[in-house]
Amino acid sequence: MARWLLPALLGSVLGLEPFPTPPEQTAEQISNFQRIRARARDASLAATPQVLAYFDSQPFRGMLKDCCPKIADLPAEELLRRYRAEAQVAELAHALPAQMKDIFSDVTVKEVGGMSWFPNEFQVALIHHRNLSIGASPVNDAAQKDIFGCKPFAEREPTWSEVANRLIYIAHNMRRLDSGSEPFFGDFTVVFNSTHVKDSVVIAPYDTGLYEMVCFNPHMKLPGQLNRSMLPPLNCSAWPKSLPVGTLDYLDHLILPNLAAAANSTKTNRTMLDSARDLYVRSSMSEIDYQDVPALGMQNLGDYLESDILANPRLPEAVKFGIGSFPTLFGTQDGRDMQAIAKRLHWPLFWSFGTGDPTAQDPHMTLDLKLPGNLRIADPENILMTTNGTVSGSASETFEKVWQEAVEVRAKRNATKQDVHKWWHALDDQLRAAPITWRSCASVHDCVGVDFAGDCICVSKREERIAFTV
Ligand SMILES: *[C@@H]1O[C@H](CO)[C@@H](O)[C@H](O)[C@H]1NC(C)=O
Ligand SMILES: *[C@@H]1O[C@H](CO)[C@@H](O)[C@H](O)[C@H]1NC(C)=O
Ligand SMILES: *[C@@H]1O[C@H](CO)[C@@H](O)[C@H](O)[C@H]1NC(C)=O
Ligand SMILES: *[C@@H]1O[C@H](CO)[C@@H](O)[C@H](O)[C@H]1NC(C)=O
Ligand SMILES: *[C@@H]1O[C@H](CO)[C@@H](O)[C@H](O)[C@H]1NC(C)=O
Ligand SMILES: *[C@@H]1O[C@H](CO)[C@@H](O)[C@H](O)[C@H]1NC(C)=O
Ligand SMILES: *[C@@H]1O[C@H](CO)[C@@H](O)[C@H](O)[C@H]1NC(C)=O
Ligand SMILES: *[C@@H]1O[C@H](CO)[C@@H](O)[C@H](O)[C@H]1NC(C)=O
User: Does the model's pTM come out above 0.90?
Assistant: First the structure.
């Protein structure tokens, strides 16, 4: 099949006709962002008193006393300051697959290594010659027009210059998932550099695809095998369609809708306060150590602010670091390819335990499943090369030894959850790392993680990086 040849060709095809490199931000993206920022500024300012009042309400204070005593008596202004600060540094994560998937149109690990910019799903669809009437694209097209004010395409098949105006889906990781984005979205998560992409980040209070299907456009045709009974019950009053979207600087108006969106108390017993508790126990705002955060339920995985990039961000520099899915990629050729790309592009690389399930089944099908969601390790060889992180002398050797065990098992049979656990436990102690937070490092935007001892893992100086990447 011709499409399987594409990865090998991409290096020479992209950047040339018929897929020339788009502008880093098109004129339409710039004017759309300016319009969004102006509206966000007003809406955020207007919402601040309501947010402060909520933070001072009896039920909210009672919840904090119970879950997060260290911050239960902080003034509402300080709680808001922390929220804003954490929002500025929380990971902007996009997970992509090792191999092409059916519903989502996305670049693969190998392809991204050959790109000069990070493509959005419509650009990928044109490159892959996918039919845009099938899969998730119609839902996302509707959401981008309805919610972010993107211009409709003139014809059913968009042109290469039209698709350059669209956006890249990003999960905002305030809940500190080890996988950055939801584990079933893909095998390799790229985390964008928030400083680098700041003037293109546009934020919705909840996953726009889900909200579009459940609330804004409830009669639309659902993609793939999805059926309505599989969609979560949302609270459609939480986010009125007229609510302006936000930016990293102006998002106070999204704080309460984000907590209310997944809390429909008619259909479930979940309330906004439950969502608030789930956020606070996982976030660094409450000063709970990463190793002590409680497991995540499947329902809360999707409660992120959707913080999309309205640009064509340049590679490799727009990406801050990567996270490989340990259960699906450790001990595989795809995993080796990912390591090689990270090394060549000088991206620091981590691994996440995620669901611990090597079959990569969509965990949403098992609603009572809980994920630890706080298990991340450094790739020892990579981290020594790309950052000032330190690992114990034997860590690289152990990593390779366990990798070979995994290769041997995977050559004989499919890996099981037990295999994944065993490999993970052989590495976990030596290499454990945590996401950075607003309070972890002095120069937080130069840093990619925190090690076991609480020391920041930061990138080397830019001059040195350039020497590595040419
Ligand atoms: C794309 O799929 C739709 C719906 O299945 C179909 O009507 C249309 O003809 C297809 N277009 C192309 C170019 O194959
Ligand atoms: C929708 O999915 C549910 C749960 O998987 C299943 O029980 C039901 O039969 C499906 N309905 C349709 C119309 O396919
Ligand atoms: C809550 O869910 C029910 C069932 O899905 C739905 O009919 C109702 O409109 C929802 N309530 C709100 C406020 O969205
Ligand atoms: C939906 O959220 C609003 C807050 O935005 C809340 O007042 C209302 O009770 C919620 N409705 C349901 C059905 O949970
Ligand atoms: C909500 O809680 C009540 C009382 O605890 C329980 O009887 C009921 O089954 C719950 N409903 C749902 C949908 O979980
Ligand atoms: C890495 O560099 C940062 C910033 O210079 C510093 O704060 C941190 O302690 C260093 N980390 C290690 C492990 O040396
Ligand atoms: C591994 O799993 C796949 C998908 O479930 C299956 O098709 C394949 O036969 C399995 N391979 C082995 C060696 O068991
Ligand atoms: C992120 O981008 C900023 C500005 O371009 C740069 O100073 C910083 O070093 C970058 N951080 C990382 C971790 O690459």
Answer: yes
